[in-house]
Amino acid sequence: MAITDDELKQRTEALIEEVDPHANDQYTFRGAQYDAGLAFVHFPEGKGGLGLSRSKQSIVDQVLRDAKVPYHDLMVNPIGIGMGAPVVLNHGTEEMHEKHLKKIFTGEDIWCQLFSEPTHGSDVAGIPSRAIRDGDEWLVNGQKVWTTLAHLSNYGMLLTRTNPDTPKHKGLSYFILDMHSPGVEVRPLYQITGEAEFNEVFLTDVRIADNQRLGDEGDGWRVAITTLMNERVALGGGSGGKGGGPIRTLINLWNTKKDELGEHDRKVMRDQVADLWIKAEILRLTNQRAKVLAKSGDAGPGGSVGKLFSAELNQKIFETCMSLEGAEGMLHPAGYPMVRSEEAHGSSFVSGQFLRSRANTIEGGTSEIMRNILGERVLGLPGDVRVDKDVAWSEIPR
Ligand SMILES: Cc1cc2nc3c(=O)[nH]c(=O)nc-3n(C[C@H](O)[C@H](O)[C@H](O)COP(=O)(O)OP(=O)(O)OC[C@H]3O[C@@H](n4cnc5c(N)ncnc54)[C@H](O)[C@@H]3O)c2cc1C
Questions:
Q1: What is the model's pLDDT at position 345?
Q2: Cα gap 111→184, rounded to integer Å
Q3: I need a labelling partner for 300 at 20 to 30 A (CA). Which of 42, 99, 183, 327 fits?
Q4: Phi, psi at 207, each rounded to 5°
Q5: Domain assignment present for 396
């Protein structure tokens, strides 16, 4: 069924008319959005989508923004929506679609990503955590780290080693882990922002039923790639339309501070602000293009362009914000408290966002790794040196 842009807009307006987002809670409004196929328009009908191009989601999002709908993906369930839903759609059973997709979108179930371990982040394929089969179940032991939102999550996307005697990429399996299972212990990690948005997760004799596996046994790396490619689109995808997201913070600050600057400072800063605004616009258009190219839930390596560019741009934007703030930028509201964040990315003050942006070039794959992916998979340059590629994981010296 072909749906025009105007029809999509009208359907979104009708949703807002029928289920007033200001009079209904998040679960009710977003549940109705999912049922109307306006959650992930590129997903199939009946699964939160309408089978359209991913780029058409921006039409829905713009209508929601114009109506000041208060529930945004990033604040609701960033990892579940950005990565969990596409992974479940692409690799899960019908039963898993039914059980998880809607609750991920409404935020009823928060999800986290259990990939990185203390010894393996960039080289996540080499992780040592282990799952050993016990009948219809797996017994998992190991430690995860930097697990964003694990303390609020009901489910985690768990990558773990099920066969140590094959090369590292071939011995991994991927499970949906119920975070309330016995043996799962979540401990906070505090960041320079003062928040503890991420965690260490200890897994001790955790039992997972085999029917919670996504993909074949030993094929977890393929499922992990779907997750990582979608993570890059989610992280690099920018927030909002033209002039939205971090660049808006800078423009607002510029407008309040520019008259306090001396003539020369003002000229220099104006150039910097204009340059960043242009780059933010290039990022927005690049992401639009990536979304048009991306198939349903399958982001492809092109998402790494947006992730790389947005991480480095965010840092420059918030550095410029700090320059505009001057000495005031060193002040933190409420005495720089150490808090457990109840929301994703809770820092709303500029110095908090500046500190948080330092993580942008690390989280979801470092900028060096993004450049490797772009070099190899987009530009077709020779690959990184991989001496352990064909060696059984158990034989790799460590
Ligand atoms: C805010 C934040 C949130 C996060 N949330 C999650 C989460 O929810 N779940 C999760 O699983 N992980 C999460 N992570 C972890 C993140 O994915 C890793 O930190 C990241 O992949 C880097 O791994 P590492 O820290 O082990 O660094 P390392 O891999 O040890 O890298 C150290 C340095 O070496 C460089 N390097 C490594 N390999 C190469 C190479 N082949 N070529 C060139 N340079 C290289 C890196 O670029 C980096 O500069 C999060 C991290 C942050 C900062």
A1: 44
A2: 14
A3: 99
A4: -100, 130
A5: no
What's the count of helices (H) and strands (E) in the chain, helices before strands? 13, 8
pLDDT tens digit sequence for 183-214: 999 999 988 887 888 899 999 999 999 999 99
Instruction: Name residues contacting ligand 1 (CB within 6 A).
Output: 112-113, 115-116, 121-122, 146-148, 198, 359, 362-363, 365-366, 368-369, 372, 384
How many A from CA of 119 to the centre of ligand 1?
A: 10
Q: In 3-state terms, what secondary structure has residue 1?
A: coil
Nearest-angstrom CA–CA distance, 38 and 181: 33
Of 146, 307, 387, the residue with max ligand 1 atoms within 8 A of its CB, to mutate for a pocket test, comes to 146
The answer to whether 231 is a known catalytic residue is yes
The CATH number of the domain holding residue 141 is 2.40.110.10
**Domain of residue 82, residue span:** 5-106
Rounded to two decimals, the pTM is 0.91
At 30 the pLDDT is 98
In a domain, 391, yes or no: no
Q: Where are the alpha helices (DSSP H) in the chain?
A: 5-18, 26-35, 57-66, 73-76, 78-79, 85-91, 94-106, 220-236, 246-257, 263-293, 303-325, 350-357, 367-373
The single residue of 108, 200, 231, 260 carrying the catalytic annotation is 231
